[in-house]
Amino acid sequence: MKILDWYILKRYLVTFLFTLLILIPIAVAIDIAEKIDKFLRHENLTFFEIANDYYKNFIIYYANTFMPLALFIAVILFTSKLASNTEIVAINSAQVSFTRFLYPYFIGASIVCLVALSMNHFFVPSSSKTRKAFEKEYLKKKKYADTSIREFSLQLNDSTYMYIQNFDLKRNSGYNFSIDLYDGIELKSKLTADNINWNEKDSIFKLYTWKKRKIFKERDSISSGKSLDTTFTFTPSDFNYKNIMAQEMSSPELIKFIEVSRKRGIKNLNAYLVELYKRTSLPIACYILTLIAVGLAHKKARGGIGVNLAIGISVMFIYVFFLKVAEVLGAVAGANALLNVWVPNIVFGLYAIYLYINARRKT
Q1: What is the pTM of this model?
Q2: Minimum mean pLDDT among 22-36, 39-53, 130-144, 190-204: which range?
Q3: CB contact at 8 A, 329 and 335
Q4: 3-state DSSP helix/strand/coil percent for the chain, to nearest 5?
Q5: CA distance to 105, 113, 265, 362, per residue, from 92 (Å)
Q6: Which residues lie below 8 Å from residue 150, measured CB to CB, with a gap of 6+?
Q7: Cα 138 from Cα 103, distance rounded (Å)
Q8: Cα–Cα distance between 212 and 220 in angstroms, integer?
């Protein structure tokens, strides 16, 4: 790397961090203004708990969320500054091609991309788990639905299906339980119970007022009893899959969860797939946004930096809009989650290529 590369790379990273450090305090200040009353309601809640359990993780989450926006604004700002000071003209006069000029930009984008990838796949999910636990405890009204699973069915394998009308996750008890075993499309046996309890210590289920029916060609066999200790290939944690937030699982945990859910016959996992794919597509967008920002700001504009910044922010908000629409569409059952998540990057990637070709032709 030459002196020019170090100069641009330093400006890239410093402006990016400066922009991020401006956005985060604003987000924190707005959040404090909204939640100060809720904090004060809990007399036993200390400042350290608020700062360590909530706002530390709040900053990690929003720093990661604002990263593409901060990157885009930063590149527009300092590239426009280079153009307004005629530094880019001097660089062009030194026979430095536009492609070579982009070299330190893409080194900076690679650094930010690697940080964003590690945060998205590992650090942010763990941070979100702690933050959401704090929100459930102190900031949100506790609902019955948070601890109770209702009308829940689960395919355990190709031939076994389980259903439970209600299960309380705190008490580890439920009612109206049934488990069916099929041979192809024919029902072979059915086990039902009025009540079911989970003994976590011994890892067994206790069924109350149970009945088991085995179906044969010529006759049926029925047995029943008041209580029965048994084991199944599931635990109450499997009942809670609808309540599990994908944002709270690291990528290895999320991949494992999706694989297990598929084996158990859960049909629509697109919301989880969208979250998984998004963790990679957003960091990769650092390259696309960098190229767009340089393509828009490398020429001196009549209105100065303000014009470039206004155009850049408009482009950024269109990108965010596309991103949100793609996420919603990707989560719909039957949709191609991978394609939907990557559509914004594909569309804006083509726009970035157009700006690159246009800029290279004019320099």
Answers
A1: 0.76
A2: 130-144
A3: yes
A4: 65, 20, 20
A5: 16, 28, 60, 11
A6: 165, 166, 167
A7: 48
A8: 10
Q: Tokens standing for 255?
A: 């991949």
For residue 272, give the nearest of 251, 290, 292 by alpha carbon: 251
DSSP string, 26-64: HHHHHHHHHHHHHHHH-TT--HHHIIIIIIHHHHHHHHH
Question: Quick one: CA dihedral 157, 161, 167, 173, positive or negative?
Answer: negative
Give how far Cα 8 sits from Cα of 123, 225, 325, Å.
29, 78, 35
**Which two three-digit tokens encode residue 345?**
């990057």
What is the end-to-end Cα distance of the chain in Å, rounded? 22
Q: Cα dihedral sign for 150, 154, 159, 160?
A: negative
Residue 6 is which amino acid? Answer: W
| Encoded amino acid at 105, one letter | Y
CA–CA distance, 293 with 287 (Å, rounded to integer): 10
Contact, 232 vs 162, CB < 8 A? yes
The mean per-residue pLDDT over the stretch 88-95 comes to 83
